[in-house]
Amino acid sequence: MRKFWMAVAGAVVLAIAVAGIASAVNTYDVHLANSQSAGKGTTAKPSPAKLRFGYRVGDTEGLRPQVIGEYRIAAEGLQSFPDARPKCSFEQAADPNVTTPDDLSPACRRAIVGGGVIQNAVGAPNDRSQQEACEVDLTLINISSGDPRFPSTMGQVRRRGGMAIRIDGTPPRCLTDVHDALAAPFYDVKIQGVSTAELRFKVPSTLTHPSGLDNSVREVTSTVQKKTGRVRIKGKRRTVGFYSSVGRKGRTRTVRVTFIDESGVKKTATAQD
Fold this sequence. Notes:
Blueprint: H1 2-23, E1 26-37, E2 47-59, E3 68-75, E4 78-80, H2 90-93, H3 106-110, E5 112-123, E6 132-143, H4 152-160, E7 162-169, E8 178-191, E9 194-202, H5 205-208, E10 214-224, E11 228-233, E12 236-241, E13 243-245, E14 254-261, E15 266-272
Antiparallel strand pairs: 1-2, 2-10, 2-13, 3-9, 3-14, 4-13, 5-6, 5-10, 6-7, 7-8, 8-9, 11-12, 14-15
């Protein structure tokens, strides 16, 4: 009988532990939203802008967050003008033999439009209590081609442009050397009825599961610089930024990030700038 009750008690403890893990879900917070432009801008006369923003990912039970496989990022009324700036190919931007952006090809160095830092938590897939820190740098590069690992990016980057998000990290800031990139095409959407460029990308397994581990994003801070160039708009040559304001509905601008984790759960977080 004693063994029976011990087995029952063990089963109850295990059930409670599993229930706790099952109830744990990711939390999301967009922060540091700060788009700086010379004015509100219009579609006919875009106003060059700088976009600085970030987001945090947490867990309701204090565990390592679920791995996120896909992102969609947009700031109301900020349109992208990739043709206003130099470009390089995704293959050049993702060069695996390069360990720092300073060693990228001259074409890619000219195509850099911003950068930032990513704070990650790494651990074994079967133990989300493991949360080893992994800090990496990100570099944003204007690209002319997509990532062959994700065929849909190929045509979309050719049609609408996009960025390579290059990731570089080395010990002791991260457990392992990380030197990879992903392609993030632009898509035209509307937020509050205002024309907006949305950056969409899926994260390759080389970044979400390096060396068989789970790599969970904790916090990202990034800046797209106010880099300008000239493009033709409605028959006239205009000076625009890589990002430019073409309007907003009210006094503030909605910055929106959509997260899709590897289990397929989709959540959207916003902030007002």
